[in-house]
Design a protein that fits this description.
It is a single chain. This protein has helices at 27-35, 50-56, 77-91, 110-122, 136-144, 169-176, 190-195, 201-209, 213-222, 236-243, 252-261, 269-284; strands at 3-5, 12-14, 18-19, 40-42, 65-70, 96-101, 126-132, 151-157, 179-183, 227-229. The protein has 290 residues and is an alpha/beta fold. Helix 1 (27-35) crosses helix 2, helix 3 packs across helix 4 (110-122) and helix 8 (201-209) packs across helix 9 (213-222).
């Protein structure tokens, strides 16, 4: 397993971790990944998987980099503090390594939310402050609202078939030493990834390198500086396959072949504006808050 520096700290993270959104595999797949070096586990209060993650890491907490998220409906100060305590209880630990705002909440002042996050760091309940699904200007506003700490990571959708963050978010985070945590690094599923690969380039590159298609797609993702990936799988054999994406690098000519052959999404600024407007309206109505 290869490791990357986390943000601007001396901490090293495995470049393949384990995500638990829509996860129903129990503790064995998680422990299989940990045994292979995937000691970065990500969950969230709205996933309903904090308890199983807590069970999986019993007896090995010191080895684990543990990340979870607070839902937007809990972005008021008192709610952030309460939600963190609830997550700590479900996870069975006394601290969270990376505590992330799950989505922007346009109905709560970011200064109030980030102030609560800094309180949690000062209390020793969380080590680092992170974001999830924040666009570049949203990230900058969140950082500006902090007075004593810095944003360490932003968890966003990124894969060989979804390269929207390459427009401006990824370069900025690389420049500022903010780690990008790529969720859905294999797309929604392998079938959706195959639809973006009409020439079967992934299969060709996998065969040439003696790897599997998921390993090639993941290796492409983690080849980017400052990017780690958190694929999810409910099965031990798939977790092991995912972990096999680390520890090697695709040749430059194969990377170029993938870049040319895969049809990828790069959503425009107009789409992002529309998404914000829709989410704001839902949040004003008390929906879409998680």
């Amino acid at each position: 397993m290869d490791y990357k520096r986390f943000a601007d700290t001396d901490l090293m993270l495995p470049d393949i971790g384990i995500g638990t959104w829509c996860y129903a595999g129990g503790i064995e797949p998680l422990r299989a990944g940990i045994a292979l070096g995937a000691v970065f586990l990500d969950t969230a209060e709205i996933y309903g998987t904090e308890t199983v993650v807590g069970e999986a890491i019993k007896g090995m907490r010191a080895r684990i980099f543990l990340a979870t998220k607070v839902a937007p409906k809990h972005f008021r100060r008192a709610d952030v503090l309460r939600a963190a305590d609830d997550s700590l209880r479900r996870l069975g630990t006394d601290h969270i390594d990376l505590y992330q705002l799950h989505w922007p909440n346009y109905t709560v002042a970011i200064d109030e939310t980030m102030g609560a996050m800094e309180e949690l760091v000062d209390q020793g309940k969380i080590r680092f402050i992170g974001l999830s699904n924040f666009a570049l200007d949203e990230l900058k506003r969140a950082q500006k609202a902090l007075s004593r700490h810095r944003i360490a990571a932003n968890q966003v959708s990124y894969s060989i078939a979804n390269r929207t963050i390459e427009r401006n978010l990824l370069p900025y985070c690389q420049q500022e030493n903010i780690t990008i945590i790529a969720y859905s690094p294999l797309g929604h599923n392998l079938s959706s990834l195959a639809e973006k690969d009409p020439g079967k380039v992934l299969q060709l590159v996998a065969k040439k390198n003696g790897r599997t298609v998921p390993q090639v797609a993941l290796n492409w993702c983690i080849s980017r500086p400052g990017v780690v990936a958190i694929p999810k799988s409910d099965r031990v054999e798939h977790v092991r396959d995912n972990c096999g994406a680390s520890g090697w690098r695709l040749p430059a000519e194969d990377m170029e072949m993938l870049d040319r052959g895969i049809i990828y999404r790069d959503r425009s600024g107009e789409w992002i504006t529309w998404r914000r407007a829709a989410k704001y309206c839902l949040q004003k109505l008390g929906r879409g808050l998680g």
